[in-house]
User: Fold these one by one.
Assistant:
Number 1:
Amino acid sequence: MNWNRLERQIEAIVFAAGDPIEISRIAQALDVEESVVRHCINRIRERYFDDQSPFDLVMLDNAVQMCTLPEYGNVIRSALELRRTTPLSQAALEVLATIAYNQPVTRSFVEQVRGVDCSSIIRSLVKKGLIEEAGRLNIPGKPIAYRTTPIFLRSFGLSSLEQLPVLPEEPEEEKGEAKQLEGQMDFFEL
Amino acid sequence: MNWNRLERQIEAIVFAAGDPIEISRIAQALDVEESVVRHCINRIRERYFDDQSPFDLVMLDNAVQMCTLPEYGNVIRSALELRRTTPLSQAALEVLATIAYNQPVTRSFVEQVRGVDCSSIIRSLVKKGLIEEAGRLNIPGKPIAYRTTPIFLRSFGLSSLEQLPVLPEEPEEEKGEAKQLEGQMDFFEL
Amino acid sequence: MDTLSFTVAEYQGPLDLILHLISKHKLNIFDIDISSLLEQYLNAINSWKEQNLEVSSEFLEMASRLVYIKTVSLLPRHEEEHEKLRQDLTGQLIEYSICKQAAKTLGSLYIGQDIFVRGPAPIKIDPTYTLTHPASVLLAALSDAMGRGARRLPPSQEVFEPLVHRPIVSVTTKIFSVLRTLRVDGRVKLDRLYRMNTDRSGVIATFLALLELMKSGKIALQNDQVELISAGKKQEPVSSPR
């Protein structure tokens, strides 16, 4: 197996794809096993790291995408004359968190958790590409369900949903009471 | 002058720009002379060549663009064309069906029916050749109308729009209810 | 508009406000003192009104919910319901505080604005759709798509029929149904007969049917085993209770 050649081809494909491209597609196009592609991707990433390359290949579920390292954000922004985008609002983060940890979920589920209308926030998160429709739930009214996207993973430095930070356990009736409250106090005293 | 660092920044900028980007803009962002940027670009190109990288920086007038070497064209094409075999999502099917049964219709009609933004789905359906623009409607704002294409007919095994499955007379929900009751009778007759 | 966003910026909603009040006034989230919470909550809303801030309906809805929980607590013999309402609120608050925490953690991970990707290379590929599907999926998709829109129309009268005219289950029907069950099994658990009903009137009709059948000596209740014995099986019509 000519590893070097395969690596070059994979780099070329991932670069040209721009958007995340599935490992399975790369494997099919190159007529090799998926495990070979994954192995090559790891080798490429190591090489980029050793060479201090400004690029990285990020894994997003079963796809891969080429992107720049965060430390180049400022210089890229100034060259492309992009304004620093406003960070996600507290409300947007709450909606994203609710969807990320419970997906696929309906809008009304999110609204129940937050206690407020979330339609405009959901619309803007869809526009930003952070969430997308995930079909309809098979319950009365067939509501649209939402899930997070590969852009979500990339934006939070995750390669899959399993990497989401672990949530605090729901406090048990009496046991964890004191501890939980302490944690919450920290949180409230922000 | 930290040449290595400058090279990395230039690579990052040219990569992120996608389209050709003026040398002057890069120079400005990095606060160096244009000649320095040109020198760095030459160094990057040499390094890519020595490393047998699949990438190259191409100069077009006073702009520069990152691209893949021509010999990778075939493998890239075959990987990207495999995308065509991704089946339509539920959301895409709903938009397509709404257009098929009501054509010619505007985007806002589709969005009214579904209650969510459909612009990116419509764009991708146009790209896939399943729908096309059918001129503009003669109503305020002159919105673009959409209709299905011959590729649409082929994809769903139809020879004309008249062959679209007919809508049932009674609403779905009632039918479902009747079925449910039948099921319940079975249960009683155990 | 500015005033509205001011309110929204301070608190994400009524749950957020309550969490704030609970921490500020050192209330116990697991044993909320509804009276003092209600007082603090109404104070907050009133002060907004004094500042001419628009108070969105969600905050008023929560106010009326708190008032209701307090009212129930004042009614005699409603401890259970009061406890349930309070626990529902506690559960919701805990869930929301977890959501807030998750949002904060996620926010600290956000690097979206510093990572850049590029668009697809302008390589000529044919994006034409090549798969084929049966036309029937279109119809299914259409009815799913219209589900939302259709529901915006006022519901038809038939929709209300089952709510207004509950089906009345006759005792006679239930007598037959009980006998049919017994003819198959010989004996049957009482609660299975009850569980065969989907509504209250069915349960009542079953109960009356059983009384009727016992009175006429067709069936008997086997003391504490909660079983029915068909008289047709040649058993003692009435077994002596212990």
Number 2:
Amino acid sequence: MKVLLFGIAKDIAGAPVIQVDTPVTQVAGLREYLYGRYPRLRELRSCMIAVNKVYAADGDALQPGDEIAVIPPVSGG
Amino acid sequence: MKVLLFGIAKDIAGAPVIQVDTPVTQVAGLREYLYGRYPRLRELRSCMIAVNKVYAADGDALQPGDEIAVIPPVSGG
Amino acid sequence: MDLLVQIKDSITVQEAVDFVQSPSCGGVAVFIGTVRNETRGKSVQKLYFECYTPMALSEMEKIARHIQQEMGIQRIAILHVSGEKLPGETVVVIAAAAPHRGAAFTACQYAIDTLKETVPIWKKEYFEDGEVWVAAHP
Amino acid sequence: MDLLVQIKDSITVQEAVDFVQSPSCGGVAVFIGTVRNETRGKSVQKLYFECYTPMALSEMEKIARHIQQEMGIQRIAILHVSGEKLPGETVVVIAAAAPHRGAAFTACQYAIDTLKETVPIWKKEYFEDGEVWVAAHP
């Protein structure tokens, strides 16, 4: 499973895309995986997950082929 | 004493400037004079008098040399 | 000078925005009024704006100064046209710049609301079958 | 199409206004955001905007559709830049046209407020002594 990262999350991971090799089937599981691999993500004001370009809740399921992204606090405008 | 007229007041008077020959010393007196000479001014939604480019109240005095104007309802913007 | 009030034949949004924008102000709110092609269901051919220009500029400046002194606005531009205008043409542009965008919106709305009540400018609408001074009668 | 959402290198106020203006809408409200030359007392050299473009466009379109369906707005444009921007440059333009100007102001403010909360765009500020992703930490 591939995960896109943006802004400070990209800097923390050191890459715009990472590969997740552990099987995760829910947003909550992915979040725990990411926090374990990149503890500094926990320091952010917020850290949302988007699935197929829509904000996802922790209980949402992940399917193979989903476009998954880590959304640190936005600051456009 | 000269009086400037604008918008529909100018149309009612048929001129952009009129001469007032009766002596008037207050805005209220001028208003009565104008209503007498141009009764259709009474039909307007409002009819303000400006003295030296400032809205005047009925009790304000008029001095020789004042710039006096009839201000029908405004509709800019 | 941090305020601009003008009455002229033709105005653009850009000149108002250029005047108020500054590197120290992050947000600009703008209002643009244009000639509508119909009013109360009747097709409008053109408008004519008559201005008591010196007093209108004075009233526009009062609005601008009030906004600067009471509403947290640093730079403001109020531009209005005079003369004939066709549907789609711009007749009024107001731009306000402020460090806080809420203040810029509030100021811009106050400016157009007050302009429509106090500034001695008169609009005549031309229809196929006649013409009328807007809002003159009850 | 009566809504326009775009992310690109450079945007102008005029293109947003041109899109929303129509002879049937008398009033247009606009918000323009520019790069400030300082933030929290520190001089800003430049900004960098990173966008998750497909999702950002989708969120911008949600804002635009909500405004059209719930707020009495006929035409709306939401434009945002990506990449490097210097102080004074325009980074966001929102324009809303409505028969009633109050609705246009309300919609414009709703759009910029919501954009800043939901649209996945990130701003990095460059100072003389370093750089920081805005609002990332508590």
